[in-house]
Amino acid sequence: MAYQYSNVEYTEMVRMLARCDDNVSEACRQYAIRFPNLRTPSHVTMLAATQRLRDYGQFRANTMRDSGRPPTHTVREQEDILDFFEIYPAASTNDAARRFNVTQYFAWSVIHGEGKYPFHFHRAQELTEPDKPARAAFCNWCGLCVGCEGDYFERYVRDTHRHPRDLNVRGQNKNSIVTTALMIALKDSAQLSTINHKFLIPGHTHMEVDSDHALIEKAKKRTSMNIHHPRDWCQLVRSASNRTNNFSVIEMDSNDFYDFAKFIKQHLLVKKHNSIGQKFTWNEIRSMNFVNNQFLQFTYKTSFKDTSNFYSMSYTKRNKDYEFVRIDTVEKCYSGPNPISKQKKKDLISLLEYIHPCVHDFYHQLLTNEDLHDIDPDLASNEDE
């Protein structure tokens, strides 16, 4: 039931509107300040009370009009609609029309007159501050996995050209490491002839794979599956497949990671200038091109325009033979399972009460290293500028 204003309240509305020179928005604000314990009237209520006083000399609606078409909707109906949207902000104008037996247009016009607009409520994932560095670290990890797995291209590539895209990541020589991994993978592949690598411009980093990530995140929210073991994530990703996206999960172990950073230090020369003496800066690169018969050499340009020039870059050392280089010549990152810090294992063990007992042994058998400390990848020093 709509709130019933007294004649005293209507009087104060009229006086407040006169003080504010008929500025109804300011009058409503001043009314709320002056009478904090009273219900603050809406714009429609304050204007209607003033108009009734001018036309009929009273605040109550006059049911006996001398002439004219009687109103089809009363002020009380307008107030009921406004109260309805105040209680249910996610409701639609159709909901209000059915609730009060009015037309959808009338419900819309009432809230439109108040400076409000109907909207459709859509659920969306809220990204909090801790989510941003976690998502960035996950993207960096995915990029390294693509560059480190020896037979990645042999498994997934069936054409002669490849067009990967990546963000221009910084820190820990990631760009040089990924570049070296691409060149070795290209040399070791019997199917690839060229690789065109794109660096997305900050602010325009949407990729087709983002829709795949959205499917996986949606499946994670809706699933009733319990995640007690890392391998459970693999099953979750498989279950996120649909008619157009059929996900294939490749489980990797410590033998699938190669130490390209060590290979670079021992055999390559990461130069700071290109073939014509210009300074080479990763942040300015927009596209890189690798060719199978030009090992450890690539061309790049600093613009996506077709008319922009390509520049040449080489990682080779003088008088050094690179015919022997294959993916097998690169040392593995790990000789066995990768240990974690003692503090991280302690935290995991403390959470076992929420984990199914069948996988407790997995966490108890995790290897640790006393000298190992967790490092936040977003706080790591930038060595690649």
Q: Describe it for me?
A:
- With 385 residues, this protein is an alpha/beta fold.
- It has 14 helices and eight strands.
- Strands 1, 2, 3, 4, 5 and 6 form a six-stranded mixed sheet that branches.
- The chain is elongated, with a radius of gyration of 34 Å.
- Residues 63-67, 146-159, 167-172 and 381-385 have low confidence and may be disordered.
The H-and-E topology, N to C, reads as: HHHHHHHHEEHEHHHEEEEHHE
What is the count of helical runs?
14
What is the structural class?
alpha/beta
How much is the average pLDDT? 78
Shape: elongated
Quick summary:
This protein is 40% helix and 8% strand.
Task: Write a concise keyword list for the protein shown above.
two-stranded parallel ribbon; 8 strands; disordered C terminus; six-stranded mixed sheet; 385 residues; 3 domains; elongated; alpha/beta; 40% helix; 8% strand
Topology:
Elements: H1 7-19, H2 24-34, H3 43-56, H4 75-87, H5 93-100, H6 104-113, H7 131-148, H8 152-156, E1 161-162, E2 165-167, H9 174-188, E3 194-200, H10 209-222, H11 230-239, H12 260-267, E4 287-291, E5 297-301, E6 311-314, E7 340-341, H13 342-350, H14 360-364, E8 368-369
Parallel strand pairs: 1-3, 2-3, 7-8
Antiparallel strand pairs: 3-4, 4-5, 5-6
Helix pairs in contact: 1-2, 1-3, 5-6, 7-9
